[in-house]
Amino acid sequence: MNVLMTGVGGQGIILASDVLSEIMMRYGCDVKKSEIHGMAQRGGSVMSHVRFAPQVSSPLIPYGACDILLSFEELETARYMSYLNENTRVIVNRFRLAPPTVMSGKEPYPDITSILREKTANVHLVDGSALAAELGNPRGVNVVLLGMLSTFLDPPESLWIETIGDMLPARIREANIEAFKRGARLRMQ
Amino acid sequence: MKKILSGNEAVARGAWEAGVSFASAYPGTPSTEILETIVKEYPDIHAEWTPNEKVALEVAVGASYTGARALAIMKHVGVNVAADPLMTLPYTLVRGGIVLISADDPELFSSQNEQDNRHYARFAKIALLEPSSSQEAKDFTREAFRISEEYGTPVMVRTTTRISHSMGIVELGDVQPQKAPTLERHPAEWVMLPANARRRHPVIEERVVALRKLAEATPMNRMVMSGTDLGIISSGVAYQYAKEAFPEASFLKLGMPYPFPGELVRAFASKVKELWVVEELDPFMEEMVRALGIPCHGKDRMPLCGELNPDIIRAAVSGETALKTAQPALPGRPPSMCPGCPHRSMLYALRRNKCFIAGDIGCYTLGFLPPLDAIDTCLCMGAGINHAHGMSKVFGPGGQKLAAVIGDSTFYHSGITGLLNLAYNNGAAVIVILDNRTTAMTGAQNHPGTGVTIEGDRTTDIDLEGLVRSLGIQWVRTVNPYEVKNTRAVVKEALETKGPAVIISKAPCVLLKTGFLPGKPLKVDQETCTGCKVCIGLGCPALEFRDEKAHINEVCVGCNVCAELCPAGAIGGDV
């Protein structure tokens, strides 16, 4: 199984991919994860590959082999089309951060849903950022989206909750569990 | 016990398991997290940030001369700085194991070049280990110390960004005790005068032969036999990509590619019909295969530039074009200096004074991007000062307006000698030291100017202005770059002086707790704004321009630089 997480610096993508990797290891899979840190943290694009299976060789997902694309920012969803195939499930968080050329009025923010639908019909648009804000912690969007992601993967809810409890700060444990559970319900919407 | 570790964390773990006593590094992507992990997880290892990589290697060598095990860590271009000690180190006697980590950066995710440092191992005639996973990063680091002591050789462990920053499951091992230091004298093996070094050179050549025998036998080099149609020799992360692309092929996986195990390669080649060498960057192994007289494919069909991936390898080997769907053109997100960054206003002041701005390595190199467009050169650490000096001597007195910018960490790394030269040879250039009190680009590491060590201890605090004066610079000013008008005036004055001039632009990085105290976002009064775009010229991510007016978004930290510049007085806190 190949999960690609995309978004922009500061959205907690690296942490979310760490949590997913840990869960899949505890579930008994071999896991590899690859991302680039460095300059990305200064407002740049962030992409994390998470792969799990009985045995994983390459830490990078081959082109066309992404099973689930979990995107934290709308435009970033469309940046990695070569990894998608017609069955890829795409989860898009409704959140826009205008890149510099959009900010300075040089070009419009692109319509990504039409780009995505050319490739796959499996597109879920979710209000993860709005839900995280409603729950009182906008930075918890990563846990909300992990909740949504969990509904497409095998490990039981209890393993997700236990792992999130172990890896995220204890003082916001209850808030994170709530965010995770509410995130899981986004699928129904 | 199993744990998910990055390659960098795994190297740190391997060093700890090997009983390492001492580790030194200069921060550099993708190697930085190794020493940071050591400090955080394994405090019984003494760790230190050194001013540069030459110092890092030399202090580690000193530590190993006591019989303790020592690790020096750097990115690929850092090895260039450490190349002087590296090339003579193999002549000297090894007591405690001495291991050099070289973290290379194919694809230049955060570097000025993508040199292939495997050549250094061959150049220095030392053992080279190349892990292809986090598990191997740990195991090979540990094994490197054993080889170092058993064969009396420094060992290079070469990772790449995809190994350093990828994570995988690691089975942890037991921990060997640290070795107690003892003081011994070995002048014939440690004093590299010609007479001694001449006697030591044959030792190196004999050692290469012994290491080659090790490479033929070590389980780090192994055949993974499957079908006989396709045989692939590979190492590092390229091995994982190749295995992904061709699970049915046979492999000769080389975890120790130098000294090159020729007999093993011959045996493998004889078992397969078509032989490929799959490696990132240079044809390092391929040329040694060809030197054995064995025909193979490799860089005749595989790219020399950038990193590989399973698709590039599949396409090259099978002769197909890579499966790459059309990617729509999308607005990019180039990295930029943070809102409130103190570099921005200083670079703006320099650009407005219409001078040539020699640059260096650090966050301020991003000032190259429009609209600031304020960096004219970037070669390597410490080069900017020297560029400006060299240009000034050719133009002569009253020539062009020349400046150079260099960060504080970069100045301590390799700017001091350049500034000494500027003073000594009386160059006419303005050197701006961007003193933001940290090594910002790599994630805010301490350095000799911050007064704190990596272990968190208070230490001597460098008097930067005093240091600059002691190098022979007489014209020195310290400015607060947030005071834009004053900064521009000081730059102008400096450019008018006849000899060398130094401006210390002193303001902590905004990401530091001690940095600029973030205020509320400023606002643009839409009635007063004339749409002149002066503020937009700062290139601040907080400033937007739409409907012929400037706007400030929520990432603004209230540094007030744009407000001070606005000719219409339209920007303020409570407009």
Summarize the structure in words.
The complex is a heterodimer of chains A (189) and B (575). With 189 residues, chain A is an alpha/beta fold. Chain A has eight helices and six strands. Chain A has helices at residues 13-26, 74-77, 100-103, 112-117, 128-134, 141-150, 157-167, 173-185, and strands at residues 2-8, 30-35, 45-53, 68-71, 89-93, 123-126. Chain A has a six-stranded mixed β-sheet. In chain A, α5 (128-134) crosses α6 and α6 crosses α8. Chain A is globular and about 45 Å long. Chain A starts with a strand and ends with a helix. By secondary structure, chain B is of the alpha/beta class. Chain B is 35% helix and 18% strand. Chain B is built from 20 helices and 21 strands. In chain B, β19 and β20 (549-552) form a beta hairpin. In chain B, α1 (7-17) runs parallel beside α7 (134-151). The longest helix of chain B has 24 residues, at 194-217. Chain B is globular. β2 (30-35) of chain A pairs antiparallel with β8 (166-171) of chain B, so a sheet runs across the interface.
